[in-house]
Model the fold of this input.
Amino acid sequence: MTGRNARPSRIPDPIISLIDDRLTGARCAGKSPLFDTELDDETAEERSDRLTWARAQCTRCPVQRACRAAAEEQEHPHGIWGGKVHGLPGHPGRKDTAA
Ligand code: SF4
Done:
């Protein structure tokens, strides 16, 4: 990726919106499902453990501040952004938990 406006073709718009040079070096790169709000066939305990692990990655992420700014730009962020969990079940789009 060479710039914020460099948008490769054939990538769905929701994914395109996540491509941002500010997030270069993100610790979640290549691990996005682990940063989702919930996964299929996941127990509540497994989800809790996974989200705890993911949030710990965010605390050591070099682009955490930029990530939080990017989350603020999303209309309905879901998953973990900058160590915050967004859109927990029953609260779609809500910014539920502080880091
Ligand atoms: S702060 Fe967390 S969610 Fe944001 S880019 Fe870094 S690892 Fe990913």
User: Anything to note?
Assistant: The chain has one domain: 13-97. The first strand starts at residue 79 and ends at 81. The pocket of iron/sulfur cluster is lined by residues 23, 26-28, 35, 57-58, 61, 63-64, 67, 80-83 (CB under 6 Å).
